[in-house]
Design goal:
This protein is mostly helical. It is 66% helix and 0% strand. The protein has one domain.
């Protein structure tokens, strides 16, 4: 699921707080999207790694570890690919 904000960015649409459509820099938007995609990929990679570690070392994995994995998975599911 792609957030409404990311959908708007990818279509180069932007509104100010009153809802008036404003011009945006395509380069700036493209840089934000690229950075978002990089951060998303890194969060996914780190979450997968942490989950594999927790599964392999289940005696050492705490409730906080599993909670962090659950929260990261929830964040990933709301920012997924189209």
């Amino acid at each position: 699921m792609v957030s409404p904000a990311m959908k708007a960015l990818k279509s180069y649409q932007q509104a100010d707080e009153e809802g008036v459509m404003v011009m945006v820099s395509r380069q700036a938007v493209d840089e934000v999207i690229q950075q978002h995609d990089c951060l998303y990929a890194e969060l996914k990679r780190m979450t997968d790694h942490l989950e594999a570690f927790a599964n392999d070392h289940s005696m050492d994995a705490t409730a906080e570890t599993w909670s962090a994995i659950h929260c990261a998975r929830a964040a990933l599911s709301t920012q997924g690919d189209e």
